[in-house]
Amino acid sequence: MKKKNVYITIFFIFVLAFFSAYLVYPNYFKIPNFPDIPFKLGLDLQGGTHLIYRADLSNVEEGDKVQSMEGLRDVIEKRVNYFGVREPLVQVQGERLIVELAGVVDPAEAIRQIGNTPLLEFKEPKENYLDIIKNNEKIFETKEGNIEDPFLPTDLTGKYLKKSDIGFDNTTTYKPLILLQFNDEGAKIFEQLTEKNVGKPLAIYLDGALLSAPNVQEKISGGKAQITGDFTVDEAKALVRNLNAGALPVKIDIISQQSIGPTLGMVSLQQSLKAGIYGFIAIIIFMILIYRLPGLMASIALAIYVVLVLAAFKIMSVTLTLAGIGGFILSIGMAVDANVLIFSRMREELKLGKDFSLAIEEGFKRAWPAIRDGNLTTLIVTAILFGFGTSFVKGFALTLSLGILISMFSAIVVTKNFLRVFVATKLEKVKFLWY
């Protein structure tokens, strides 16, 4: 490769490194119209609330449980986003729902935001619902026995709700009522329910409480319904707001809560950064002592690698957790490992008496299969971890995989061109600098 092309490549490498470094830490001076992107910190670094809920799937068909949990996850994400929680993490694990709210350090507030989401259900009457109602009236008069619900759960729940509005009864009372509009799938279910129960009541439950049980006069198409009750205007507005934020498809109960304060998160971040800096310095010292001038070039390339990876984290909005930072630090070791393989091969070529330029090219060529195979197997493992792991494992896998990909660029492009600068110079003759 011609020296001119080498210098041009190095120039663009430093330009890329400069803008990456500025993106990572733009505090020294301001470049006009340059995006200012903050790092996105996870729960363990920023502080926040970790909640675990158990979903009640007792009334859900076995084949519909996965879909119900996915619907529940979508509704909870919609709910917490509606209340301004930034980048919530909501995961499904079996019948459990894990909710992580970074920046929300009051568990009671987090539980309120999620727990206030109403469970909206439409139920149809049992075959003997009239007898059950009469029997319940007797129980109520005598105050003995158990009240039996005359209605059966149906497939129509809040997960099919498209939107909700407030309306008013057009009779002389002008009482507020809740207008519901279901999505296409919900409209079909509602139409089937009304067709099946013409002349019978269709009960509307909210959080297990019966709000209304209007009689079905005819089959209703279009997916529109209404909730009537003894609401005040403020209560109706609050209910509409909650329903639009997301009505739960199934009931949930909180089984675990944990709060991580911002102070603890900041301490964890500072300790992680300190560990990373110490590790980086130790690597530089090792590389220079063992590999001399190539080690120095590798250290500069490693510094460029670090700013490139951090800039990629910002651009891709990677959520940094302690596990993610661990993956990043491990990727630094992988980047150094590639340089060690290259320099070892290059030394062998130089000891055989080969020309310096040829030794560089042969060193990279012979080291490439080991670098490729080692990084590829690690990427396969990170893909498995990301596909099947929990949130912290996913963060580790993502940062490690990004680091590996950029480390290959750092070793093969950056370090190689740095070494090419010394071709046909006096320094290439100084054996102590190279082996």
User: Which spans have pLDDT < 50 for at least 5 consecutive residues?
Assistant: none
Q: Give the name of the CATH superfamily of the largest domain.
A: Multidrug efflux transporter AcrB transmembrane domain
| Total of domains | 2
CATH architecture identity of the largest domain: Up-down Bundle
Order of helices and strands: HEHEHEEHEHEEEHEEEHEHEHHH
Q: Would you tell me the structural class of the helices and strands? A: alpha+beta
| Strand order in the sheet with the most strands | 3-4-2-12
Describe this entry's structure for a reader.
By secondary structure, this protein is of the alpha+beta class. It has helices spanning 3-24, 43-46, 65-82, 107-115, 129-142, 184-196, 233-245, 262-315, 322-351, 356-388, 391-420; strands spanning 40-41, 48-56, 89-93, 96-102, 120-125, 151-157, 161-168, 176-182, 203-206, 209-212, 224-227, 251-260, 319-320. It folds into two domains: 3-34 and 261-433, Up-down Bundle (Multidrug efflux transporter AcrB transmembrane fold); 107-259, Gyrase A, domain 2, CATH 3.30.1360.200. The strands form four sheets. Strands 3-4-2-12 form a four-stranded antiparallel beta sheet. A four-stranded antiparallel beta sheet has the order 6-5-9-10, covered by helices on one side. The radius of gyration is 32 Å and the shape is elongated.
Describe what is shown at a glance.
The chain is α+β, with helices and mostly antiparallel strands. It is built from eleven helices and 13 strands. A hairpin with a 2-residue loop joins strand 3 and strand 4 (96-102).
